[in-house]
């Protein structure tokens, strides 16, 4: 089979076979790789790209009894539209992303705005490993060991002003490095946002790695945000700018369709997406393979103890 054929096939396999249950396609595709539903050329080495070891201390407050999603899936089944819309596109194309040199600018309503080199940012606080549940708005989920530190550590350095209410995250947008920018799917650069208290919540992780290695490009190298109680699209990848604001930032997805993608986007099984239910999810790539049974989605993705108080008194059907 030619590489192109393999690629085409793998693009067919992942979204369609997993979600429409087209067993025939999978069976014919990659003998042996059945459970993975990834093309055989997705070896660990190919997926890792230029990843380096990262020293991170497991944080005992963030361990899960659930099985972690395999490295192959975490790094081979992605959403990163800057590199294409198929789940296999980021792993196939994100090698063109240049992650050094890289700076992150923190600006807006802060006492000490700064631009930090990625290597300085890496050393700003002790690196922790935390295992988080991740829930995509499309209805699939993973369990991922991330490496990073609470975003609050960085925000405390820049010192938000009294008027600060929101934090905006802005992804790199460079057509030379990101072939997906040719399609106007959403408005580039990819922009996301949190309320300041959400951004300061200890769960919100400034993330540099996964599985004890620096982030593979397809997972948002060299630095991204991870917000585990919200749908995955809130967790912006490959960030170049963090802006502290008074106004609620306009995010790429809420601009795309405000009715389908709210600013809050907390995982909430009782608030359906206009086009589908959010009551259940499928764990991608767990031991049951591509046909994992649906499991019940938990309110705040199971992080209610740590985040529910931030929404006390709010109608979460209105503020979805
Ligand atoms: N810049 C950028 N960030 C992004 C996206 C994207 O397309 N572009 N996709 C989001 C979505 S929908 C999800 S589910 C997660 C997926 O992260 P992962 O591929 O590391 O699992 O990244 C989010 N962050
Ligand atoms: Mo997602």
How would you describe what is shown here?
The chain has 320 residues and is of the alpha+beta class. It has a single domain (3-311), classed as Alpha-Beta Complex (Sulfite Oxidase, Chain A, domain 2), CATH 3.90.420.10. Helices cover 21% and strands 21% of the residues. It has helices at residues 3-20, 23-29, 44-48, 71-76, 89-93, 118-122, 151-158, 196-200, 252-256, 304-307, and strands spanning 57-58, 103-108, 114-117, 128-135, 140-150, 166-171, 191-195, 205-210, 213-214, 224-226, 239-245, 280-283, 294-296. The strands form two sheets. Strands 1, 4, 5, 8, 9, 10, 12 and 13 form an eight-stranded mixed sheet that branches. Strands 3-2-11-6-7 form a five-stranded mixed sheet. Strand 4 (128-135) and strand 5 form a beta hairpin. The longest helix has 18 residues, at 3-20. It starts with a helix and ends in a 13-residue tail after the last helix. It binds the ligand Nc1nc2c(c(=O)[nH]1)N[C@H]1C(S)=C(S)[C@@H](COP(=O)(O)O)O[C@H]1N2 and molybdenum atom (MO). Ligand MTE binds at residues 78-82, 134, 136, 171, 190, 219-220, 232-233, 235-238.
């Amino acid at each position: 089979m030619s590489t192109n054929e393999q690629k085409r096939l793998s693009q067919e396999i992942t979204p369609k076979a997993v979600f429409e249950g087209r067993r025939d396609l999978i069976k014919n595709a990659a003998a042996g790789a059945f459970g993975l539903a990834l093309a055989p050329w997705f070896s660990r080495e190919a997926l890792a790209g230029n990843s380096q070891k990262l020293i991170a201390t497991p944080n005992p407050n963030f361990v899960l009894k659930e099985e972690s999603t395999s490295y192959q899936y975490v790094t081979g089944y992605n959403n990163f539209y800057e590199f294409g819309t198929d789940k296999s596109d980021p792993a196939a194309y994100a090698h063109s992303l240049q992650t050094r040199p890289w700076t992150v600018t923190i600006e807006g309503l802060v006492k000490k705005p700064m631009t930090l080199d990625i290597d300085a940012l890496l050393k700003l606080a002790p690196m922790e490993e935390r295992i988080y549940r991740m829930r995509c708005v499309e209805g699939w989920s993973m369990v991922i060991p991330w490496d990073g530190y609470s975003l609050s550590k960085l925000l405390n350095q820049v010192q938000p002003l009294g008027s600060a209410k929101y934090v905006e995250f802005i992804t790199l947008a460079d057509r030379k490095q990101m072939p997906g920018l040719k399609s106007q799917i959403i408005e580039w650069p990819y922009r996301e946002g949190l309320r300041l208290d959400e951004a300061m919540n200890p769960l919100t992780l400034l993330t540099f790695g996964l599985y004890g290695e620096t982030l593979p490009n397809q997972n948002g190298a060299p630095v991204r945000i991870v917000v585990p109680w919200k749908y995955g699209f809130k967790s912006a990848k490959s960030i170049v700018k963090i802006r502290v604001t008074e106004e609620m930032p306009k995010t790429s997805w809420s601009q795309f369709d405000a009715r389908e993608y709210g600013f809050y986007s907390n995982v909430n099984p009782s608030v359906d997406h206009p086009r589908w239910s959010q009551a259940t999810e499928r764990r991608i790539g767990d031991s049951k393979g591509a046909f994992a049974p649906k499991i019940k989605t938990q309110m705040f993705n199971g992080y209610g103890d740590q985040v529910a108080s931030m929404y006390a008194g709010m109608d979460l059907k209105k503020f979805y």
